[in-house]
């Protein structure tokens, strides 16, 4: 298994220590793991402050380099980041990504209009249709204007948070039309998408993005695709990855993608 989305205690929302994660990865037989702790720039927090929410960059890189050398005979460890993408911060994002030796960068949209979906403020005074339209239209703007990422993470993440806000969370035709445009831009730019297995444990009972979106990506000719557990605790490492490989094979994908120094390679499923 290749787990391409893992958080440690360098992320404020994770409890798993780096050493603990590595030991668990070896225990369950992971072949390769990418640590992708959170980086968000200029985002709102509940104290009405606009802050940078980011790990200690130098300590993070150093710790991963030590772990990579220590366990090189047992596990391939890659240095990654989950970068919150915002058009308004594209220059700072570029500077951050280029100034560190990342192997892999997940681009994500946790934050719209500087507000993390987690805080639910995004959903206030919006119908489900309005919330989804705003979310996907902003991702389309981002993928057109920002380039410092390798794959787009959990593309339909908004559905997870919508579970607590609306009676039903299904995508509608208008959403799929915008998602198709997003996927076309990603493919044209040589970017990929992530299949995130955490949807199973957050109540969606499926991956993010949904199988329908994965089928669309395959139909459009998309090939760059990674799979990650989005683990924040050690018991979630590697969860549902092998069955997600089977899902991808059933859709028609022949490979998953791995990265080294931001360069993709393909592993046959």
Structural commentary:
This protein has 269 residues and is of the alpha/beta class. It has one domain (2-268): TIM Barrel (Alpha-Beta Barrel), CATH 3.20.20. 35% of the residues lie in helices and 25% in strands. It is built from 8 helices and 12 strands. Strands 1, 2, 3, 4, 5, 8, 9 and 10 form an 8-stranded mixed β-sheet that branches. The chain has a two-stranded antiparallel ribbon with strand order 6-7. The model has no long low-confidence stretch (mean pLDDT 96). Its EC number is 3.1.3.15. GO terms for molecular function: histidinol-phosphatase activity.
Throw out a few tags for this protein:
single chain, 269 residues, alpha/beta, TIM Barrel, eight-stranded mixed β-sheet, two-stranded antiparallel ribbon, 8 helices, 12 strands, 35% helix, 25% strand
